[in-house]
């Protein structure tokens, strides 16, 4: 059974939007069509989990520019790029930029269905990252510092010595930090940190 995901169809060709909309109806996915990438970026709820069927060649903003904008805004919309002029080099570049899949027009129902299933799961992961990011932004500077120290494997005693505070103070801040991030164990906090900061490095 297919999980229904909200689909954004972004294509300047009316016939393509209509055909994709027909396929979405057949597959049971609610959908919204956009004629231009700029309107989509300005009006769509970018931090709600969804899947975008994104045309590569469009006026104003092309598909690659829209994809880059979604990445820059940490959007929760997972992208499937559609094009009638695809090549391997373009596909590889867009996949590296965060696209989930790359399909050639005319779109066939079966590969599109699988691509949407994969993209939908990615969208849910992106939404979870967004929620974690919001939680992290709610942390005080002390809690953010403490989080970084915990990720490095420091004990309460080590952190108390480094920050020149009592172990009890560390315990209080640590409990608040864990509560805000919804973590029961330090391992969960470490997982969240590295999901949010995959390029982080410590001295």
TrEMBL record:
Domain Response regulatory: 6-120
Domain HTH luxR-type: 132-197
Residues annotated with 4-aspartylphosphate modification: 55
Name used for this protein in its record: Response regulator
Pfam families registered for this protein in UniProt: GerE, Response_reg
Highest taxon listed in the record's lineage: Bacteria
Any coiled-coil regions, as ranges: none
InterPro entries membership: CheY-like_superfamily (IPR011006), Sig_transdc_resp-reg_receiver (IPR001789), Tscrpt_reg_LuxR_C (IPR000792), WH-like_DNA-bd_sf (IPR036388)
Keyword list, A-Z: DNA-binding, Phosphoprotein, Transcription, Transcription regulation
Keyword Transcription: yes
UniProt key word Phosphoprotein: yes
